[in-house]
Design goal:
- This protein is mainly beta and 175 residues long.
- Helices cover 0% and strands 50% of the residues.
- The chain has strands at 15-25, 28-36, 47-53, 60-61, 74-81, 89-95, 104-110, 118-125, 133-143, 148-156, 161-168.
- The strands form three sheets. Strands 1-2-3-4 form a four-stranded antiparallel beta sheet, with no helix packed on it. A four-stranded antiparallel beta sheet has the order 5-6-7-8, with no helix packed on it.
- The protein is globular.
- It starts with 14 loop residues before the first strand and ends in a 7-residue tail after the last strand.
Length: 175
């Protein structure tokens, strides 16, 4: 026995954190999590791992859903949104190593029905103008029955905690 959990999901090796977007789709449960392969400690270049399960006990690791690159130095926490029509979205924090905690909120769409490949889309939200912050990240998205809501956590330079609320009709344009 290598000391790894038998029932709790984990990756075969590397660092893992923040389970994200647990949902049922196309006959399987899907679980995403922050992941740093080939390291046992956190580094800014996080990815989103992806695993599937038929029973929530045994998990099969899938290809990495999101990786750094294409404008992202790191792919940090976020959430999964599944609209009634159209494709799902991974809504995540895109980070730049020059300002790690002041991220940008970006979306990705699946390229296939099994959610094996994801294509990154545009940045959909940034820190509002004229706000002096030390953090802007970790979007949580939900549907309230009429529109999409996104809460983004943050903090001012004076230590005041903040939460921004954005709204959207289509998961692409946020106010």
């Amino acid at each position: 026995m290598d000391g790894r959990p038998l029932i709790h999901f984990t990756v075969p090796s590397g660092w893992i954190n923040d389970p994200l977007g647990l949902t049922f789709h196309a006959g399987n449960y899907h679980l995403f999590a922050q992941y740093v392969p080939e390291r046992t400690v956190w580094v800014p270049e996080c990815r989103w791992s992806h695993a599937i399960s038929a029973d929530l006990l045994t998990w099969t690791l899938q290809p990495v859903a999101l990786e750094p690159g294409d404008g992202d130095d790191g792919v940090w926490s976020g959430s999964l949104a599944i609209p009634l029509t159209g494709p799902a979205r991974l809504v995540y924090t895109s980070v730049d190593t020059a300002a790690l905690d002041v991220g940008r909120i970006r979306v990705a769409r699946p390229m296939d029905d099994a959610w094996v490949e994801w294509a990154k889309g545009p940045v959909v939200a940034t820190v509002p103008a004229a706000v002096d912050v030390v953090a802007f990240r970790d979007p949580h998205v939900l549907f309230d029955g009429t529109r999409w809501l996104m809460v983004v956590g943050g903090g001012r330079t004076d230590g005041t905690a903040l939460a921004w609320l954005f709204t959207s009709e289509d998961l692409e344009t946020w106010r």
